[in-house]
């Protein structure tokens, strides 16, 4: 997550005296939630996350050999799961970074002749902050929660759609580089998509979901009041999946991740989903953000609970998720 490290020490102090649990604002639930038979395998979640946050990738800083290895890993995953490249290859070169750097972009074409012209973007950033040479012991910032966890969730969603072929709308799978450098990957990509007259419906960006949050909801959404996305997701799952986190609004997290680049360009519902609640994880931008502190059963349940929502988002006859005035 971009630039939050400037605020975090003050936020954590504030959290000791202010309960940052999700508020009781409850979107209306649907009596007939979407049902799916597909089951997410915990071992797949674990294996994917473990490698992406391993020391071998040296913290995945944009422009380094470590993130190059991560890019190769993600390309192989998409190819293995029959997700086609959106461009000529999976690699989308950043236009705003001096060293070679790439977003990894795949597409799962929709199966409806008309709705496939509309796109749902599922995204997360695969870069992190790399190696801290000032440290004396553990120098690698592995970024397991930030944001290997989000990449893992999006990868599992891509696998689900590629296997079930259950999407009427087309799905764009994006793993961003350069997020930690100032949302560079998403800024670069939206410029290209705008030129193509890309027909965006919504973007769901997954950011830091490696540990469960406190409160009655599974996760929160950034920019809660900007659209009806939270309400619709809860209708689709039939659960209290998404809520409002006061700290998110206070620190304007809507503007701090790759959803904002898409929102700024398209003015469509583009929001991030997270379980980082400022109290449940103390290793933000820290070498101890490692696989061993991730809650893999929670992540597996998180992905499983979101599948009915992303399914309905990809299949509703009309664009049910809309911006609010």
Automatic annotation (TrEMBL):
It comes from Flavobacterium cupreum. InterPro entries: M28_fam (IPR045175), Peptidase_M28 (IPR007484). Residues 103-300 form the Peptidase M28 domain. PANTHER family: METALLOPEPTIDASE M28 FAMILY MEMBER, PEPTIDASE M28 DOMAIN-CONTAINING PROTEIN. It comes from the Bacteria. The keyword Cell cycle does not apply. Keywords: Hydrolase, Signal. One of its GO terms (molecular function) is metalloexopeptidase activity. GO terms for biological process: proteolysis. Residues 1-21 form the signal peptide. PROSITE patterns: PROKAR_LIPOPROTEIN. This is M20/M25/M40 family metallo-hydrolase. The keyword Signal applies.
């Amino acid at each position: 997550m971009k630039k939050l490290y400037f605020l975090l020490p003050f936020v954590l102090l504030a959290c000791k005296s202010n309960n940052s649990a999700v508020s009781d604002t409850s979107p209306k639930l649907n009596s007939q939630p979407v049902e799916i038979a597909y089951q997410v395998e915990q071992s797949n979640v674990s294996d994917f996350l473990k490698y992406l946050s391993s020391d071998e990738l040296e913290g995945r800083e944009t422009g380094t050999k470590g993130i190059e290895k991560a890019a190769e890993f993600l390309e192989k995953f998409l190819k293995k799961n029959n997700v086609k490249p959106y461009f000529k290859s999976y690699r989308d070169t950043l236009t705003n970074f001096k060293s070679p750097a790439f977003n990894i972009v795949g597409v799962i074409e929709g199966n409806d002749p008309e709705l496939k012209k509309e796109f749902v973007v599922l995204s997360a950033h695969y870069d992190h902050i790399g190696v801290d040479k000032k440290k004396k012991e553990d120098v690698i910032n592995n970024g397991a929660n930030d944001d290997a966890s989000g990449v893992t969730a999006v990868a599992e969603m891509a696998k689900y759609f590629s296997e079930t072929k259950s999407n009427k709308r087309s799905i764009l799978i994006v793993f961003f580089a350069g997020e930690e450098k100032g949302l560079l990957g998403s800024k670069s990509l939206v410029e290209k998509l705008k030129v193509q007259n890309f027909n965006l419906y919504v973007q769901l960006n997954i950011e830091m979901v490696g540990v469960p949050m406190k409160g009655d909801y599974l996760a929160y959404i950034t920019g809660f009041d900007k659209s009806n996305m939270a309400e619709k997701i809860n209708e689709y799952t039939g659960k209290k999946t998404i809520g409002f986190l006061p700290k998110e609004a206070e620190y304007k997290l809507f503007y701090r991740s790759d959803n904002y680049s898409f929102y700024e360009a398209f003015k469509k519902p583009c929001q991030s989903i997270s379980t980082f609640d400022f109290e449940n994880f103390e290793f933000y931008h820290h070498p101890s953000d490692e696989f061993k502190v991730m809650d893999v059963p929670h992540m597996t349940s998180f992905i499983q609970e979101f599948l009915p929502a992303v399914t309905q988002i990809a299949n509703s006859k009309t664009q049910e998720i809309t911006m609010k005035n």
